[in-house]
Amino acid sequence: MGTPTHRITICTSCRHKGTDCKPGYELIARLRAAIAAAGDSVTEEFEISGVACMAGCDRPCTVAYHGTRKATYLFGDIEPDTDIGDLVSFARDYALLEDGWCSSVDRPGKLRKTTLARVPAAIIALEDSDVRVS
């Protein structure tokens, strides 16, 4: 197994309003199993982990996709019972996107309408010591 170049982070503290239900832990387990079952159809290795909060509390459960030198996506209103297929499909697509950038119509199913944020990749510009500012 190689070093993962992509990560899926799932909020473990999100609660459905009016309940003690925290679907993040169940979503992590189901998504890990689904990614493993997808085998070669998910071309890159993904690390799947939880985090205590991603500030998407009004839209539980929140899920983020990150990749080296890629845009990051944050999705909300994700249900462990019904949205696994869309999450796996997006993992497959995201792995193949060079810069991670895609429009909402390119995202599968429910993810078209539940995107909370798309954050451009951090690009650090290095100043060449030979360049002079006039």
Automatic annotation (TrEMBL):
Protein name: Metal-binding protein
InterPro entries recorded: DUF1636
Pfam family, one: DUF1636
Domain of life: Bacteria
